């Protein structure tokens, strides 16, 4: 008799249904493309499914899944570095935007796409996922100092890309959605 599925399929299906959209949103902020974000999320969830029976702490799944998404994104960028498009050094002058202006979000996402992958990963984890410096360092397996310096450099790149019209930048769930 052939069994269909594994004993943990039900648990994984419940987790998948509850967390696929937030993980995809994180992947989108990392890569800036919904199709690529879907691929990153799918690859990350396949990796999570394979590791599922070995996971001892199901209470820490969100952090583990988020770490898989970030690492999948970074690994993909290492493989695809030759095929990347290079943006010109200057951007056209952006129009003045208000907080409720949809073009404001698009400008922010475009500027975020110009930030190098490691810095973008730090910015997304720190300001979108609202993780602390220590949690971000643990997720990326780097030092606290690296997180701080990468965040500072990433924010400087965003400010440079966005220009003086946007003042201080804050990546937050409210501003990012």
UniProtKB/TrEMBL annotation:
GO BP, sorted A to Z: DNA-templated transcription initiation
RNA polymerase sigma-70 region domain residues: 22-83
InterPro entries with a match to the protein in the record: RNA_pol_sigma-70-like (IPR039425), RNA_pol_sigma-70_dom (IPR014284), RNA_pol_sigma-E_actinobac (IPR014325), RNA_pol_sigma70_r2 (IPR007627), RNA_pol_sigma70_r4_t2 (IPR013249), RNA_pol_sigma_r2 (IPR013325), RNA_pol_sigma_r3/r4-like (IPR013324), WH-like_DNA-bd_sf (IPR036388)
Swiss-Prot/TrEMBL keywords: DNA-binding, Sigma factor, Transcription, Transcription regulation
UniProt keyword Transcription regulation, yes or no: yes
Residue ranges of domain RNA polymerase sigma factor 70 region 4 type in the record: 106-158
Superkingdom as given in the UniProt entry: Bacteria
Record's keyword annotation contains DNA-binding: yes
GO molecular-function term, one example from the UniProt record: sigma factor activity
A Pfam family reported for this protein in Swiss-Prot or TrEMBL: Sigma70_r2
Family note: Belongs to the sigma-70 factor family. ECF subfamily.
Name under which the protein is recorded: RNA polymerase sigma-70 factor, sigma-E family
Species of provenance: Amycolatopsis marina
